[in-house]
Amino acid sequence: MNAMDLSAIEAERRRIRDTHLKPQRAASTARGVHHVALLSSDVERTVRFYQDVLGFPLTEMIENRDYKGSTHFFFDLGNGNLIAFFDFPGLDLGPYAEVLGGLHHLAISVDPGTWSELRGRLDAAGVEYMEESGTSIYFRDPDGARIELLADPLGEMYGNKVL
Fold first, then answer.
1. 66: confidence class by pLDDT, cuts 50, 70, 90
2. 62 C-beta neighbours (distance < 10 Å), count
3. Average pLDDT over residues 150-159
4. What is the Cα gyration radius of the chain?
5. Digit-coded pLDDT (tens) for 88-124
6. Which of 13, 24, 25, 146 lies at 20 to 30 Å from 97 by C-alpha?
7. Is the sign of the CA dihedral 81, 54, 152, 15 positive or negative?
């Protein structure tokens, strides 16, 4: 394995930040994330996990317009945000895999009290997780996607304003 030149990486990060991070940020052209869509190999198992364990209410189930027989279903993440899933009956999609250019994890902000409650729910459900810095819990959903529950407020990360 090649040794990384951390000072060169930091210098490049600083160059990019100095070039592109504007002191007066323009308004975004977007209204927000409508939904993030993940894959589900078992609709009911996914509903039980996200609604019953994590407390994200199921809001709707419709047929996926792109694949007949596929269910497109949604969970409320608060503040008008949704997480959605597709199943693809009859297709063998194989197991979830983290790949370069793919989804690494989905971070979901919850208040600190809820964060502690959800950690207890994960324990009760036998879900393995990694706790980091007393504010992040990383775990895998039933299909292997990595999810993070983050006790930091929206727009903050480890005490830094990011929005």
1. confident
2. 10
3. 88
4. 19
5. 888 877 777 777 667 789 999 999 999 999 999 999 9
6. 13
7. negative
The pTM (predicted TM-score) of the whole model is: 0.84
The pLDDT, as a whole number, for residue 1 is 57
Q: Which of 87, 48, 43, 85 is closest to 69 using CA atoms? A: 87
Q: Please report, for residues 76, 107, 119, 124, 145, the alpha-carbon distance to residue 151 in angstroms, rounded to integers and kept in the order given.
A: 18, 10, 11, 20, 20
- 152's tokens: 């930091």
**At 151, is the secondary structure helix, strand, or coil?**
coil
